[in-house]
Write a structure and sequence with these properties.
Layout (H helix, E strand, L loop, with lengths): L1 E3 L2 E3 L6 H4 L8 E5 L13 E6 L6 E4 L8 E8 L2 E5 L2 E4 L12 E3 L5 E2 L8 E5 L4 E4 L4
Antiparallel strand pairs: 1-2, 3-7, 4-5, 4-6, 6-7, 8-12, 9-10, 9-11, 11-12
């Protein structure tokens, strides 16, 4: 502890999950795909939405007629996919997106730099590993 007059400063241990961009699991959840086979390519992301069906919501790839509700970041377990709607996402092995370029929703959930396809914002890569998910979800 350090003292400064009447104030005592005490070091506090903060879990890495509170500091690291991908450690904030409040922004990442696993959603059921409901018998839909969706493969998120390694080191990439796809935009998706939930389609309301009588047997339950079905996860699908977003497109010009179905706006994105979330970014699919990777397959979690059989029948579940990790999704994120806001915050920072670190792709450990890196990605091929252009840093500091706004990405928009294209066809079949693909992120594109062309805003004329849908105009829906998805993310901005901050560097070769980190995406700032800033979508209009």
């Amino acid at each position: 502890s350090l003292t400064d007059g009447n104030t005592i400063y005490t070091p506090v241990r903060i879990p890495g999950a509170r500091v690291m961009p991908t450690g904030n699991l409040a922004n990442v959840i696993a959603l059921a795909t409901n018998n839909t086979t969706l493969e998120v390519p390694e080191n990439q992301v796809l935009a998706g939405y939930y389609d309301a069906q009588p047997g339950g919501n079905v996860m699908r790839l977003a497109d010009s007629t179905h706006p994105a509700m979330f970014m699919m970041i990777k397959n979690y377990t059989n029948g579940k996919t990790l999704v994120q709607t806001t915050g920072f996402l670190t792709i450990e092995k890196g990605h091929n997106y252009i840093p500091l370029t706004q990405y928009y929703l294209g066809d079949d959930g693909q992120p594109v730099t062309d805003s004329t396809v849908t105009g829906q914002k998805l993310f901005i890569p901050l560097d070769e590993y980190t995406l700032n998910i800033n979508g209009s979800f």
